[in-house]
Design a protein that fits this description.
globular, binds cytidine-5'-monophosphate-5-N-acetylneuraminic acid, 7-stranded mixed β-sheet, about 280 residues, 7 strands, alpha/beta, 14 helices
Length: about 280
């Protein structure tokens, strides 16, 4: 097979990955019960049109980066799971527009999720690993983590905060493109929150700067900037095909290698600025 050009790769991502949130018209969520819980407005309506956006990975290499002001200069900032800003503003900024959380966090650490004020800022989006190209009903019956109860409890406590469920079909549409563009066979596990978040921002924004997803010169075995925990798998991946995700993002980077080295920064076009 012929290696796709960066532009062709961007077109594949734009045209084949359908980034959408579960909506009250999506069966089996089209019940009066679910209608009470799902947000009324679409994500697009809630955020409006966004210009420059930042995606902040949770990598240990953000520590001592002093990227905070640069990150906060964006119109919108996406963060992951339990990544804090309090006490880390200098390195990661303080703005949180969207927080993407996985279903494991919300169920295994349910009490913390319901209680910790960290989650009360911005728009929440939850995702759950679905079986390979499973139909939405099949996933609904057998989610990887049974997060629906925690979701409902959170919605009752914070009815004004937008909280979306990511339609699971996008993870395998994206995985297929990652596999097609890698030389090795990849384990069939969904992409990490990192790459899902990047794709979400590419659908909402004119331009997306991603920080410390491709590691800078500060690369470290410290897993997160907010914890003293060492594990190389955090950067390279174990369950998620993280290395392959990163190779793909490297190929579509419109920024410079110097920016990766010094800032761990990659610049990607929003899909509305990709012309196929
Ligand atoms: O660690 P996690 O990811 O929350 O990180 C968010 C995203 O940042 C990128 N990252 C992180 C660390 C690092 N050293 N390099 C990186 O590039 C990755 O793209 C990552 O997706 C997840 O993807 O949801 C993940 O979640 C954690 C964990 O569930 C949550 O932090 C909640 O506690 C997973 N860890 C474990 O299950 C132990 C992790 O595998 C994936």
């Amino acid at each position: 097979t012929v290696k796709l050009s960066p532009e062709q790769l961007l077109c594949q991502l734009r045209d084949r990955v359908n980034v959408s949130m579960i909506h009250g018209s999506d069966s089996p969520f089209n019940t009066s019960e679910w209608l009470r819980y799902l947000p009324e407005k679409s994500l697009n309506e809630t955020v409006g049109r966004l210009g420059r956006c930042a995606v902040v990975s949770s990598a240990g290499s953000l520590k001592s980066s002093r990227l905070g002001p640069e990150i906060d200069s964006h119109d919108a900032v996406l963060r992951f799971n339990g990544a804090p800003v309090k006490g880390f503003q200098e390195d990661v900024g303080q703005k949180t527009t969207i927080r993407l959380v996985n279903s494991q966090l919300v169920t295994v650490e349910q009490q913390q999720f319901l209680r910790d004020a960290l989650y009360n800022t911005g728009i929440l989006i939850i995702w759950d690993p679905a079986p390979y190209h499973a139909e939405i009903h099949e996933w609904y019956r057998k989610p990887d983590y049974k997060f629906f109860e925690a979701y409902k409890l959170y919605r009752v406590r914070h009815p004004e905060q937008p909280f979306y469920i990511l339609n699971p079909k996008m993870q395998w549409q994206l995985w297929d493109i990652i596999q097609e563009n890698s030389l090795e066979h990849i384990q069939p596990n969904p992409p990490s929150s990192g790459t899902l978040g990047i794709l979400i921002m590419m659908t909402l924004c004119d331009e997306v700067d991603v920080y410390e997803f491709l590691p800078s010169k500060r690369q470290t075995d410290i897993c997160h900037y907010y914890q003293k925990f060492h594990d190389r798998a955090c950067t390279m991946g174990a369950y998620h095909p993280l290395l392959f995700e990163k190779n793909l993002v490297k190929r579509i980077n419109r920024g410079t290698d110097e920016d990766i080295y010094t800032h761990g920064k990659v610049t990607l076009p929003g899909f509305r600025n990709v012309h196929c």
